[in-house]
Amino acid sequence: MNIILNSLFIKMFRSFNIFILAIFISSCGGGGSSSFSLNNNTSTDDSSTNNIVISLQSSLSEAPFSSEVTLTWSSENTTRCEASNGWSGLKSMSGSEVIQVSSKLGANTYSLTCFNGTNSRISTSTINSRNLNQSEAFHFLNQATFGATESEANSLSSIDLDSWIEGQFLITPSLYDPVLLDRESAIDSSLSNFQHQRRLLELFKGLWIKNAVLAEDQLRQRVAFALSEIFVISMLDPDLNLRAHLISDYYDVLVSSAFGNYRDLMEAVTLHPAMGLYLDHLSNEKPNVSKNIRPDENYARELLQLFTIGLVDLNIDGTVQRDSEGVPLQSIDQSIIEGFAHVFTGWHFDQSSWNGANNLLNDGAKKNSFRDIKPMKPYNNYHDKGEKKLLNGTVLSAGNSASGDLKSALDNIYAHPNLAPFVSYRLIQRLVKSNPSKEYVGRVANIFNDNGSGIKGDLKAVIKAILLDQEARTIIGSDLTAGKLKEPILRATQLWRAYGLKNHEFDNTGKGGYIFRGFYGNRDILDVFGQGPLQSPSVFNFFSPFYSPPGEISNNSLVAPELEIATEYQNTNILNFFWKQTFDYNNQKTISDIEVNYGGDKIISSLADFAINIDEEVALASDTTSLINRVAAKLLGGNISDDLRNSIKNVIDQSIYTDEPANQASIAIYLIVTSPEFTVQG
Asked: What residue ranges do the domains of the chain occupy?
């Protein structure tokens, strides 16, 4: 899909009249790429002492250590086969198996011996294990972090990917609500409750940028962001836009659970008051015909449809199950939704009584409220104790408690065969590629169902399977299904990470995101990028996983979810943002603080905190080729096409800035960061 997306973005960018962009886009081609060596390597014993025939092939002849490859074999005139040297066990007469390349550098030989009576024959296949090169390191880090950096890519030359991932698992989580709690006391006490809560939300957004750019637990933060686009809530919702601590605490649940178990995450999300308010199962009551009370179905529907299993039955590889006439088999119906809606009755804020919980709900958020957030509490007098129809013909018996019904219902969803492929597909899309093969989905889904130790839903194992899969690690530029469009905000975080955004603490006034507002004309992250942390316009996320824009992508039966928000308006905002960032907010400029007035709340915005460091580029400005190569090394891992390099060189050499090194450097950075080669994640 890289080829199509590159072509599409070239056409899209041509429609904008930003003067410098129009110069180079007309001649810009697709990005260069590197790949692991493809192989059909077979070494078959040529002895004539028996008639056994074996073929053993590896999908790659050379691969970075700890990456995955597929061994495929076939045999004739055999009764059994046995693996040795790097893999083991009895094997069928023919088949394939995904293996992890040894962390030992150099040649790794895998053997298969097949038998027929007393006769046997051995076939071997050799895979050369090596370190990652810079392009491959960038490819991996753009999937596993908020943007590859040179220093992290260099570190991967001496460590295998499995060890890097394991190291990320051990890093202490960077959380949000503890910071908001700590900073809240410093907020001006004269502010209204509305302004107070908004200060906290702006602080949350500012901290999100800081953690995305600077936090050490990059993999955890990236996975949490992916989970936030599955288990969606939004601070734009009227029930949440003045309850800042519920927002930050909910995000902490995702951060803390990113390497946990999916069943535990389902329960934590279900019982979090933020989700309860957002999808209306907080204060959901049992039926009462005389009072015209019926259980709200909102959470039941979205839990099933968007968070866990979807609307149609799936095979383990994510493909849709169909009946004899080709009609998809439905996984849920209205009666099942109603059953789950009745399960989610009798839950409210953790207070001494239902009335007390109602009072807290009706009071809304006040200054210093919701500082001790607990899961929702069951109130059995308000829970429906009747029978409830669940999935796969399961019916909960009458008389159960709210807690008992909830556990049974979540276990019922967790046992559904759709869960593994449903979740695997969405996480692959958020981290690696928009159009994973069914084999890739199937491999990850099998790990979701069993991490190798009989445990289902182990997100550590799932994440590792996603990132180390051969389809994630192999770069084939001609593959139409390869890669994905970077989410707009991830393009910004990669630039900030590459160019040294300061480790600002947003001081103790609680202003946070106000710095960003001051930086970009008092406009929010959402306004600029079309997305922001927990700022989705609906429970359906910023874009659909199945969005397929008309034209080449749709014609090839592919999807490109992120293109759903790539409107002309949004693209103009993003291009103008990058112009402002590269030309106006770099460390070569004198940047004054300005006052931001947000609805009567006036804040001094420290804009210098968003200045990128371009000292190296300025020093190279007299040598255009070296300048371009340096920027390409920081943003593309050095993997820049000749077309893009030549186009940028022509612009710089013919620009009015020939005697202005800072502007020459800014041109190079801007033209790469807005190019298709940067915009598309290979």
From this structure: 37-132, 262-308+332-415
